[in-house]
Design a protein that fits this description.
This protein has 4 helices and 7 strands. By secondary structure, the protein is an alpha+beta fold. The chain has a 7-stranded antiparallel beta sheet.
Amino acid sequence: MEWLIIGFILMFVMAPVLWLKPSPRQKRQGRLRARAAEQGASVKLEKPPLHHFKGMMPAYRWPYPQAKPGPDFLLVRDSNASSALEAYCAGWRWRIAPLRALPESAEQVLKELLERLPQDALVVESTPMGLTLWWWESQAAERFSVYADAFKQLRSMLGGLSDQAVKSSSML
């Protein structure tokens, strides 16, 4: 009887410790987010730019240099887009198209990237501040490097193509 009571007390003490232990999914996400940070992306849970979406979603953002803001555009995967939106490439639609045409080289990199992204990647957004991927983190950290390199390349191609004039501090 004493061993039963000791066993029950040990289980009672150990249960909270086991609850705090990260799950395999949480460990994978931690490695993925650490790899993203190493490759220049910040990761935050934010409300994605999707209609009728409740909750938060991981947003991986590669910032544009402050002196070279990027253009505004928003691409949504067909599965989350209205059929009224203009089609861009296989599986993606413009929710907000860029005001000016993207350079041909940047457009080619963007289309190739969109074709390779996993199915849980729902939104690719560019604002003057950064290039953002909204997705559910289905890939491992090693696979993510392929996407990160393409996003960094695209960011460098789109930097300085802002739809708004850059304010210069030298004009006094």
